[in-house]
Amino acid sequence: MNQSKQLVGQEAVKYIQDGMKVGLGSGSTVYYMVKALGERVKAEGLNVVAISTSEVTDEWAKEFGIPLTDFSYIQELDIAIDGADEVDDNLQLIKGGGGALFREKVVAAAAKEFIVIVDESKIVSTLGKFPLPVEIVPFGWEVVARKIEKLGGAPKLREKAGEIFVTDNGNYILDCAFEEIHDPVATHEQLIALVGVVETGLFVDMTKKVIVADNGSTKLITK
Ligand SMILES: O=C(CO)[C@H](O)[C@H](O)COP(=O)(O)O
Questions:
Q1: Of ligand 1's atoms, which has the minimum distance to the CA of residue 83?
Q2: ∠ CA 2-42-73 to the nearest 5 degrees?
């Protein structure tokens, strides 16, 4: 599994050119991409500046020598590269397994190109086996949970080490089991319309390129 993540991470950084402004996603697959980018920065003197999607990725970027900036300096990125929890046949995604979905969506939306890197296990024909992460404000989260139940989901407040998980934005995550998500656009729209929902982990029509590990090699899926 780690070898697959490493392969797609290394493949993805080939899309990064000198002078680019780069969005760095979150998660264990992204770790290898950030490491590979750092190696290019060091070996080739590649001149890039990056915005990351989580405090953990910030640390990795610093560790591997990638200069970081923020949206007060630049509002458009040339490329963003991130992992995913599920990718369907139409390249619609579920993200947020690591709890960074809000910043990930902001960064992906700010990028001219958004490339997704996954191992084979993330490819599905229909989204929904992975419970959909939904970021919500803490106040009244119980109300939002009840409304999501009425929409057919089974929400579970995310915990970590016995405590409520709090995102980098100070919010909570509801992991919402839906049997199958056949219409990601409609599901996203229903959820985002609820007062208290900050963002959903459905990344709809955001990527045209997915790099997937494939038997010790990588494969590019395009739309
Ligand atoms: O969306 C994410 C974090 O919020 C990650 O990209 C997603 O969970 C995949 O992570 P990993 O590469 O560790 O499987």
A1: 6
A2: 95
Task: Tell me whether residue 98 is annotated as binding.
Answer: yes
- Position in ligand 1 atom list of the atom nearest CA 122: 14
What's residue 62's pLDDT?
A: 98
Which CATH number fits the domain 2-123+204-216, given the four candidates 3.40.50.1360, 3.40.50.280, 3.30.499.10, 3.40.50.1110? 3.40.50.1360
For residue 148, report the distance from its CA to the centre of ligand 1, in Å: 23
Q: What percent of the chain has pLDDT over 70?
A: 100
Q: Please count the CA atoms within 13 angstroms of the CA of 203 that sit on its side-chain side.
A: 30
Q: Is 29 known as a binding-site position? A: yes
Every domain of the chain and the residues it spans:
2-123+204-216, 132-200
Interface predicted TM-score (ipTM) of this complex, two decimals: 0.98
pLDDT under 50 in the chain at which residues? none
The pLDDT of residue 1 is: 74
Ligand 1 lining (C-beta closer than 6 Å):
25-29, 82-85, 95-101, 104
CA-nearest residue for atom 7, ligand 1, is 84
Q: What per-residue confidence (pLDDT) applies to 92? A: 98
CATH of domain 132-200: 3.30.70.260
Catalytic residues: 104
